[in-house]
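Lecture 7 notes: from sequence to structure.

We start with a single chain of 69 residues. Read the sequence below before looking at the structure.
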Amino acid sequence: MLELHKKIVIDENNKPVAVQIPIEEFERIEEVIENYGLAKLMDEVKEDERLSSESAKKYYQSLKQNVES
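Now the structure, written as tokens:
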């Protein structure tokens, strides 16, 4: 489990309003979330039709041409 070294920021009424964590821990959390999202997306499309290498190249080339025009 990811250990977090958090500091709670409170307002003048001692109500928690924010959390501070070291940037390294924040970056690790971002990485974990991105990896989770990528894995979820991969699961969602695993049954989709797969393109051949040549078809994929043509498709991405058409995307590139659409962006340039």
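The chain has one domain: 7-68. Keep this in mind for problem set 3.
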